[in-house]
Amino acid sequence: MPDEVLAPNIELFSRNGFAGPNTTIVRAQYRPRFLRARGEYLPRRFHTWDLPAQVFAEPKALPVTILEGEGIGLELNRRAAAMSFGYVNVWADELHYIVSGRGQLDTEVGTLEVRTGDFVLIPRAVTYRWGEIAEEINEFIVVTTSELRLDPEGAPATFNPDLHLDRPVPHGRPGLPVDDEYEVVVRTGDRFTSYFYDVDPIPCLDVIGAPLVVRFNIENVQGLAVAEGGLAPAQLMSSTSGRDFIFGVGSRHSARPPVHHNADFDEVICYGMGPSPWGSVDTPGTVTWTPKGILHQGPEENVQPGYRAWLLETRSSLTMTPAGRDIAYLMETDRYGVHPAEGQPATAR
């Protein structure tokens, strides 16, 4: 008999995520540990590195969606060489998280040198491309039709924008003529339109005013230490629609999160880096997904020397794409490992 049944188990039922009313339920039994499950509405663990290399083999390959819902998509991208074209999403903001790699991200407002652990927020209608790649780029991208804004809770203790937020460096030069033509791919939802130019349209001479594209690194996001009782993780970003939120959930001094019924939000967590594991998760780029309403606890966060991760909460009801199914495993909702009933990827059954 599991140890959890020997003492009362506390469950938290929440409405509207961390901001709404909460109800505490006390049980003798420990409910997150299920024997098996049948159907589609299941918690999943995605091994993003398992997406086949041939998916990105073409020079003009674009990001691949693994989860999608109303107004939001979660995508993977892999680049080993510079892009020969520009790309602009005119209907959605994009938050790029660099799982691994190092390279040059060139935007129409300047250039950033990015590395593992970087977040880059690119608003809709900003054209960009990957430039020189020093180490293959693997990234996890949140694409949302809601406007994303950086609004760190508890700043500057959790995150200090004055110290750790930067913007692209303007090119300081004009766009030069090209030998043939330069293509810019315009994305509108799941449709694409190409515009062609006789000069490179992306470089700018200077940028004045509020920053458009911003960058910070997950290493500069700090958890809130909590002595007793637990506390919601620190919010980093939110959408103006109130549908999507980003939180830092790296290791912090606090009690283990309670068993949780999140009635209104799907939870997606990306494990960024160690050195410590987070429960059964120890590989950067592991993505966990708990659909709204599914009982879960999740691993202990107070581990040393520590780890870095981040959480997306979305009111959208997410579903897997075919590409997502290829790299998805049934997940147990205690330590977030591959469930014992799952011996093969979800599509293999």
UniProtKB/TrEMBL annotation:
InterPro entries per the UniProt record, alphabetical: RmlC-like_jellyroll, RmlC_Cupin_sf
Protein name per UniProt: Homogentisate 1,2-dioxygenase
Keywords annotated in UniProt: Dioxygenase, Oxidoreductase
Keyword Oxidoreductase tagged: yes
Organism: Nocardia speluncae
Signal peptide per UniProt: none
GO MF annotations in UniProt: dioxygenase activity
Oxidoreductase is among the record's keywords: yes
